[in-house]
Amino acid sequence: MKINHLGIATKGIEDALKFWEDALNLENVHTEVVEEQKVRVAMLPIGESRIELLEPTSHDSPISKFLEKRGGGIHHIAVEVEDIEFMLARLKEKGMRLIDETPRLGAEGCLVAFVHPAAANGVLLELVQTAK
Ligand code: CO
HSE of 38 in the Cβ direction (CA atoms, 13 Å)? Predict the structure, then answer.
């Protein structure tokens, strides 16, 4: 397992890139709208992980709600797993609260599922199985 990415909620990706790309010198290698989650994402590799900048695409996006409450910041940590179905079954069996009981389609054709912050010390955890 490894940290696939850190998800950071922003009001606007272009503005956030002034720090992450222009000042810190990371490179935005991929931008995509993930319709299902009502977000636009930008991926900036850092070591073996990435920074995922998130921007809401509608007022009822989960990121809109997060921005209203907290005004930006770390939104989730994404852990890469080999077999997401297996990990979800394992967490369920251990009585852990899940947001997604079955995987959804994420950015770059990945399968993703969110684990409820109540299960992970207040951290919203995203499980990611990368597209083969
Ligand atoms: Co993510």
Answer: 11
How far does residue 67's CA lie from ligand 1's centre (Å)? 16
DSSP 68-115: HHHSSEEEEEEEE-S-HHHHHHHHHHTT--BS-SS-EE-GGG-EEEEE
Distance 61 CA to ligand 1 centre (A): 14
Question: Hey, what domains does the chain have and what are their CATH numbers?
Answer: 2-129 (3.10.180.10)
Instruction: Band the pLDDT of 45: cuts 50, 70, 90.
Output: very high
Which is nearest to 53 in space by CA: 31, 83, 22, 24?
31
pLDDT confidence band for 98 (50 / 70 / 90) = very high
Any idea which residue has 């995987």 for tokens? 103
Sign of CA dihedral 69, 70, 71, 77: negative
- 77 CA → ligand 1 middle, Å: 7
Task: Identify whether the C-beta of residue 104 lies closer than 8 Å to the C-beta of residue 112.
Answer: yes
